[in-house]
Design a protein that fits this description.
It is built from three helices and seven strands; from the N terminus they run H-E-E-H-H-E-E-E-E-E. The protein has one domain: SH3 type barrels. By secondary structure, it is an alpha+beta fold.
Amino acid sequence: METLLVQIECCLNSRPLTPLSDDSADLEPLTPGHFLIGSALKAVPDTNFEAIPYNRLTRWQQTQRAVQEIWNRWHREYLATLQPRTKWCNPPVTIEKNRLVVIMDENFPPARWPTGRVHELHPGPDGIVRVVTLQTSRGFITRPVAKLCLLPVASSGTEDSE
């Protein structure tokens, strides 16, 4: 049980909060792990046990499967909070160049958050950006805006009086 809780804690404390710097070459976000140990938390990827019935798994494999199930649900729900949904009557969220984003990818193991910086915008005929080119640690990729989550950035010019 302690192993399960520590691995879940690692998953929760690995989530990206905000960009670590404004440098366009920096692809690492600030995480709760930075406050705990000074750097991002990493987890060793393990075999995916979700398709195997529980009764065929050893205790260690059952623990890893529980972590994987919790990770899948939590990371989907957390990414949904980062994606603002607007109605057709409101303008969509604008995405700018050099903005750090989290890439939605269900195939990444627990505690891994693929990130990238917006390198190029590809607006449609109506002027709305629906596809962008991202700079990642592995090169450039093209993704739809619906599969990206913008990290919140503290605005330095305005302050809320509320």
